[in-house]
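cron nightly-structures :: item 1 of 1
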Amino acid sequence: MTWRQSPVIADALTRCRFPSSDHVTCAVSGGADSLALLALAVASGKDVTAVHVDHGLRPGSAREADLVRDACAQVGATFVARTVDVGAGPNVEARARAARYAVLPPDVLTGHTADDRAETMLLNLLRGAGIDGLSALRDIGGPSGSVGHPLLALRRSETEAVCAILGWIPFHDPSNDDERLLRNRIRHTVLPLLDDVAGRDLTPILARQAALLADDADFLDLLARDIDPTDAKELAAAPEVLARRAVRNWLGRVHPPDAASVERVLAVARGEAVACELPGGARVQRTNQRISITPAPEQG
């Protein structure tokens, strides 16, 4: 029996959602989730290119690329290596992510699992996110972006089992154990505590709630498309939940809006203010019942 015929692989594939295209590109770091993504993409019959991005943040990080290269050779995938310069500064996680996605194609697939979705939902809840943030990671086709997450129905333990079938020893990133990072504290402390309080494994519940909220958000976005956010009269007369989404989607073309910015624009639409300032220096104003944005000077 080949590795492709393993019951573990076959069962995982029934719950994966790969795009219909013949070729896919997978971001593969060398961890269990991304290695499982590589293997399952190949097992699904896709022509796979695996891209490994070296951020240069750890001594010996090139060894991770060698691990991915060997895995690609074993399953018959194309290997591509990229090196990025994260640079100095605060919030290294965010800067590394931005640098990584800058060299990945827009339709790249990532190995995020149900565990990642549950953690992201809690992380966004603590940050005060609304329905879009609580939708957490989106599956293929979601409006939050073209990055695909085919493994969202799998658990982290299952990706580790896929790696074991192939005899792979995934790389363990020591930064994932650093509980000074909020996501890691949620993973190692908060979620286990919630599981203990609830007397059950909450990850499937949280992941399912995120998926339901994503459906709700998509439906609200569909309804909000019929509202012209530059028409003050129409915006003021619309149901508030749809008016907020219409404004949020409109402002998103300039910068990611926060709730306070959305409410200030709605106040302009209702005639409670003639204009308002947005974070970053942009200005929203109403003239003859039309609402317009004047970008900050540095934005042109």
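cron nightly-structures :: done
The domain at 3-111+150-172 is CATH 3.40.50.620 (Rossmann fold).
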